Amino acid sequence: MPGVGARNLPNILVTGTPGTGKSTLCQQLAEAHGLQWIEVGRLAKESGCLEEYDEEYQCPVLNEDKILDIMEDMLSEGGKIVDYHGCDFFPERWFDIVFVLRTDNTLLHDRLTNRGYTGKKLEDNIQCEIFQTILEEARESYKEEIVHELPSNSPEEMESNVDRIGLWLLNWKQDNGVL
Ligand SMILES: Nc1ncnc2c1ncn2[C@@H]1O[C@H](COP(=O)(O)OP(=O)(O)OP(=O)(O)O)[C@@H](O)[C@H]1O
Ligand SMILES: [Mg+2]
């Protein structure tokens, strides 16, 4: 089966603008289904993949080649749920499905303000959501049929996303003879 290779569990990518709820969703999915959650930002920090600080964007620069090397063995096993606010530098073959979380601008603004984001950093992130930057990045980087947009405005929507991805996982296991 193309893209699946020898994996006996699928890999899921959860992406979206900062603050849309990726980590909250991934943590719940990991707990519910025994998937291993890879928070790329944290892994990068822990494994020395963050380089000089970008003053303009107020964040450190990720060494993409280095983090991809570290992730390759993990992803080839399958059963991973990858959480990152970008998606165009991962190999396409890693993922069986890609979810892009979306949040209404005013709600996202409140979430990011609560987190202490201000000025350019706050504005850039809100614009990223308004212009659907990550959704377009995902559509350009993966097959259209595996990219799904998920609303993430409320706890109820989060719960429904957990259920929906849980069902997808069950179907995948049935289709691949894992159950
Ligand atoms: N569906 C939701 N409804 C209401 N609040 C949410 C929802 N999803 C996340 N939140 C809240 O929004 C904040 C940001 O969530 P979270 O840290 O999961 O986002 P993230 O996408 O992982 O951000 P980052 O890219 O910066 O890591 C948290 O306070 C979380 O509790
Ligand atoms: Mg996060």
TrEMBL record:
Span list, region NMPbind: 39-62
Report keywords, A-Z: ATP-binding, Cytoplasm, Kinase, Nucleotide-binding, Nucleus, Ribosome biogenesis, rRNA processing, Transferase
For the region LID, what residue ranges are annotated?
114-124
**One Gene Ontology cellular component annotation held by this UniProt entry:** cytoplasm
Q: Which GO terms describe its biological process?
A: ribosomal small subunit biogenesis; rRNA processing
Q: What is its main location?
A: cytoplasm
Q: Which domain of life is it from?
A: Eukaryota
The record's listing under Gene3D superfamilies reads: P-loop containing nucleotide triphosphate hydrolases
Binding-site residues for ATP, renumbered to this chain: G19, G21, K22, S23, T24, R115
InterPro entries in the cross-refs: Adenyl_kinase_AK6, P-loop_NTPase
Specify whether Kinase is a keyword of the entry: yes
Note whether RNA-binding occurs among the keywords.
Answer: no
Cellular compartments annotated: Cytoplasm; Nucleus
**EC id:** 2.7.4.3
Q: Which reaction does it catalyse?
A: ATP + H2O = ADP + phosphate + H(+); AMP + ATP = 2 ADP
MF terms from GO for this chain are: AMP kinase activity; ATP binding; ATP hydrolysis activity
Task: Report the function annotation for this chain.
Answer: Broad-specificity nucleoside monophosphate (NMP) kinase that catalyzes the reversible transfer of the terminal phosphate group between nucleoside triphosphates and monophosphates. Has also ATPase activity. Involved in the late cytoplasmic maturation steps of the 40S ribosomal particles, specifically 18S rRNA maturation. While NMP activity is not required for ribosome maturation, ATPase activity is. Associates transiently with small ribosomal subunit protein uS11. ATP hydrolysis breaks the interaction with uS11.
Q: Which PANTHER family match?
A: ADENYLATE KINASE ISOENZYME 6, POS9-ACTIVATING FACTOR FAP7-RELATED
Q: Which family does the UniProt entry place this protein in?
A: Belongs to the adenylate kinase family. AK6 subfamily.
Describe the subunit structure. Answer: Monomer and homodimer. Interacts with small ribosomal subunit protein uS11. Not a structural component of 43S pre-ribosomes, but transiently interacts with them by binding to uS11.
Name of the protein in question: Adenylate kinase isoenzyme 6 homolog
- Recorded source organism is Artemia franciscana (Brine shrimp)
